[in-house]
Amino acid sequence: MPGPPPAVAAVRVAVRRGLTGAGLAEESAWDPAAEPGPDAPLVAVACSGGADSLALAAGVGFVAPRLGVRAVALVVDHGLQEGSGEVARVAAAQARELVGAAEVLTAQVDPAGAGPEAAARGARYAVLLARADELGAVGLLVGHTLDDQAEQVLLGLARGSGARSLAGMRPARSAEANASGREDHGLELLRPLLGLRRSVTEQACAELGLVPWTDPHNADRRYARVRARQALGRLGEELGPGLPEALARTADLLREDADALDDWADTAYRDRGRWEEGRWTAQVGDVAELPRAVRTRVWRTAALALGSPGTDLTAEHLGAVDELVTHWRGQGPLHLPGGVRAGRGGDRVWLSGAIPSTMATAST
Question: Is pTM, for the whole model, over 0.70?
Answer without folding.
Answer: yes
